Every structure is written in C-alpha cells, then in structure tokens.
Task: inverse folding
C-alpha cells in the first residue's frame, strides 16, 4: 500500500531534477542572454535578434504598425501585429560590459526607421 505514494514522490523528484538540469544547461549555453559578444580582432561587437511587442492606441482605438517597413539591419516590422524586430551588430566595450551606442535599440530609432515623424519639441494646442 505504501508503494504507490513512494513511486509518485519519486516521479515528482525525478521531474524536478530533470527540469532543473534542463534550465541549468539552457543557462550555461547562453540561450537566456539577449545577444552575443564577439571579438572581431579590431574590437568587440554585440549581436542580437530581438522582438518587442508595441501596443499602440490613438484616442482609444487600436493602431496597427505598417507591415514590412524598415531596414533589415535595423529596427523593422514583419507580418506580426505591432512586433518590432531588430537584428544587427553594435560596438561593445568588453571591459565595461556595455554596448557603446544603444540609440539603434530605442523606440525613437524604430519610429524613425519606419517613417513615423518625431513629435519631440512639438507644441500641441487643445481647442
């Protein structure tokens, strides 16, 4: 009669151990880090392939970003609704552990790449 609870407990422990080992291997492989640093011989570069969902609402109405807009070596869109795609290389400071120019990763750079005019410094009059 005690065999069944012991088998269930053993199965749970085995499952937890397997999941833990799997997560450890995934972490060690670098799959959870956003980007890879490479020594080019002339300096380091950071390479990544990123996706970010950007929900946009204008006066309470959902707005869909244009499809297939922007350079493939910068922020751009594909078929997925309001997903920003970015895959490229950026200069990287290995000693500081930092990307040297993060501007290409900003929302402003994305809007610029897909042709949305900047509203920074614009005065809006309300009637």
Result:
């Amino acid at each position: 009669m005690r065999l069944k609870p012991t088998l269930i407990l053993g199965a749970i422990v085995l499952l937890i151990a397997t999941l833990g080992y799997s997560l450890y291997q995934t972490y060690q492989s670098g799959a959870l880090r956003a980007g890879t640093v490479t020594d080019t011989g002339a300096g380091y570069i950071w390479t990544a392939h990123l996706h970010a969902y950007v929900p946009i609402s204008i006066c309470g109405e959902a707005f869909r970003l244009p499809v297939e807009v922007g350079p493939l070596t910068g922020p751009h869109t594909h078929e997925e609704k309001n997903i920003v795609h970015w895959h490229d290389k950026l200069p990287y400071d290995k000693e500081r552990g930092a990307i040297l120019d993060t501007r290409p990763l900003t929302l402003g750079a994305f809007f610029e790449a897909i042709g949305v005019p900047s509203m920074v410094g614009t005065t809006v009059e309300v009637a």
Summary: Helices lie at 3-29, 107-113.
